[in-house]
User: Fold these one by one.
Assistant:
Number 1:
Amino acid sequence: MGSEGAADAVRLDKWLWAARFFKTRSAATEAVTGGKVEVNGDHAKPARAVRPGDMVTLRLAPFTWELAVTGTAERRGSAAQAETLYRETPASLAARTALGDQLRMAPDVSVSAGRPTKQDRRAMDRLRGRK
């Protein structure tokens, strides 16, 4: 595994940045250090070498991505180039889609801006059956 294996390998934080999962390399490094990324089922460090064929699990709340590395890049390119660096597993895609649909259908839980106005109070009274 001479120079060919070393040429295909790239740092995990660089790969995550080049694949456009994070806007900055430092954000990718923080995610890896924070335990949000696994490579081949093991927790990884930012300098871990990633090669085509590796499986990367990435937890970006509320979604979990299971990715197969298909290519490496030292530099960040276009979104079209970034898509060629990985392939998401069908199970991961189905789970993300289902969770996205569930979140989209969830009721809006907005927090009020403070104390209710007189109009708000009267509306609440009507809902409670008072007056």
Number 2:
Amino acid sequence: MSAPPRRGLTRYASATMHLLLEWLLSSPALEPKDTPQEDGPQEDWWTAYLAAAHPWATPLERAAVGGFIADRLAYAFAAGYHNALRALLPGLPGLPDDHPAALCITEDGGAHPRAIATRLEPTAEGHGRLIGTKRWATLADRARVLFVAASLGQTPDGRNQLRLVRVPADAPGVTLTLMPETPFIPEIRHATVRFDGAPVSAADIYPGDGYQRYIKPFRTVEDLHVHAALVGHLLGVARRHRWPRESCEQLATFLAALRTLADAPPASAAIHVTLAGLLELFNRFLSETQAHWQLVDADTRTRWQRDQGLLAVAARARGQRREVAWQALTAQAHPA
């Protein structure tokens, strides 16, 4: 296997972490004038992302590269989310590499398994049809396919039986309505998606418990990949605007740690505890480098200040995950 050159990206079979860090730390940093601007920024950025990410082997590496070339946090988030789905669903049939997909879980009652009321009703020959409504479907307005958490009904003991199903975004019976822009990263839209008997083929009903296999691990997988994209984005900002070298060193260290955690099972309690500690260190880094933003051009700095609310999203869920993980580790250390 031949390695990619230090400068510029060429097609190659796979990438390793040291090559990614080498590229991020030594490739020519994009100047603000070279990044997509306000006219058609999503299309421009997505085209640039596909070209830049193509040579890299793993979803986390591609997320970091996408963040590096992004001129704003919104597009870094898009790279992280896009690649989190590819890490969650490796090799899953029908998952496009060159177009966004959307994971549709949340409903009016939230994302807990008990709150999922969208139904997968059986039809002839093992096929099904979807009936229900999802909210906060990220990137659904740009997605070609939707991956939907749906219920088969309850077991005798009252457990909601969930499956993950694939539905083309333009399938009959699918209606998408954009939700209002959020105060932060408004370029990334969320949607309400209504399913009025949308057809689902047998091949698009994925096996296994939908909650344990897909929904539950996604928060961890998403955290890893979105933060990798965020770190890549900040490394691009730091290099473009000549932040102290120590900042670049710390960001490279965060990325190396995220890459290691991404290789581990996302259900691991030890991984949850370690990720919690890493994110706490990262938040401390953000606080300690606030003064460096004075070196940054006004447009980039203003967008960053506007979009920092993204970093607090799901903070409560992360805290709960941390506590549950410690309880599990404590129980292992002191079995009854």
Number 3:
Amino acid sequence: MIWRAEHKIYQLAVAKNIGFILPPTVVTNDTLAVQNFARNRDIIAKAVSSGYIDSPDGYRAMFTTALAPSDLKELEGLNLAPVIFQEKVVKLSDIRVTIIGGDIFVAEIMSQSHQSSQIDWRATEDPNIEHRPHKLPSEIEIQCLELVKRLGLEFGAIDLALTTKGQYRFFEINPNGEWLWLEDRLGFPIAEKIALWLS
């Protein structure tokens, strides 16, 4: 189940079917398709599968990246593998939803307060980036729980964006997402809930 749930294209299809709003998206290795998609919109790029690579400098993350107009003229190598391209979301903050069984813990990450974290909060240069507990609207909470259920999971870490218009946008779900920092920062009893589930 986890192997299937990790596939981002599959995740997007399931999330859309449930009713999540997704940013306009194309998955392609065609340069012209990307250039056409980027016409009259700002776009970002992200990996189709794993967001980590084994490089000569060690194992490192491939963060979501904003593409400038000049980048669209330098897409050599795109034909070797598809990439997810999405319309850039104008965010108020990032939302991390951690689900264990029927328990849900929601953190709001104030990513827009630092330039380094505005596109991908994991890239922040500020280790003390502000986190807050967050209350989701009931319909979004139900959609998060349904997504985990449909993917056949008991645990999931869902990444959403809260837009400047107060709307939620779905980015992805990680079936093995990190959570310990949320327990440290916000006191969420995630370890306790995992222990109870395992017992």
Number 4:
Amino acid sequence: MILDLERFANSERPHWDALERILKVLEEDPGHRLSLAESKRLFYLYQRTSSDLAQVQSFAGDNALRAYLESLVSRAYGEIQETPESRLSRVRPFRWFFKGFPRAFRRRIGVFYLAASVTAAGCLFGSLAVALDPAAKAALMPFPQLLQNPVERVQHEEKEKGRELRGRKSTFSAGLMTHNIRVAFLNLALGITWGLGTLILLFYNGVILGAVFSYYILYGETAFVFGWLLPHGVIEIPAFLIAGQAGLVMAGALI
């Protein structure tokens, strides 16, 4: 029971201030790790402040002091109960992009190699199918413009020089991006099929890539096909493979 509230507050305030200093460090830098001695000190100050709060609550006066101690105890409780991993998971876009995401990718690098291998197998299949049976391109290539004779298409592209897209380049670009984003998300989401859907989609997209490259290379249009696909493919293909990696990680968790 507190007989002199002012004297009690003056004697205990150094402990409250010490606790607040530790909490300020943890709140400003979620990645900060306390030493064993600092952790013990934090827990001791938390217990002592909690005890002080219990005594102040029994005193009818000073609501401001009680509100301050309640806030201090709740903040300390949150920091003690929170794990280092959950502190690091707070929304910090730059930390996630430059540290969290690369670390997660490297931890699952074997799954990425699996996704890339399945896609490469699809590329090989598509290339061989078109090389051995040119008529197979109608079944393997999903877009009508890909069925056009490569030499004729290159001549047409060089003649038109993009004039056929005049006035609708932004629409074409937006359609291309939304299509590829949708396929990437589908690749990830199909992990819920225990990975079977993800593997099929990885292989199928590899088949399309292999068929297109083989078809144009066989007609001597290697430079055109690389110049046509690689400027956006260098981003889209890795993004698609990473989405497949994520889908297979989800499948592994389900299994």
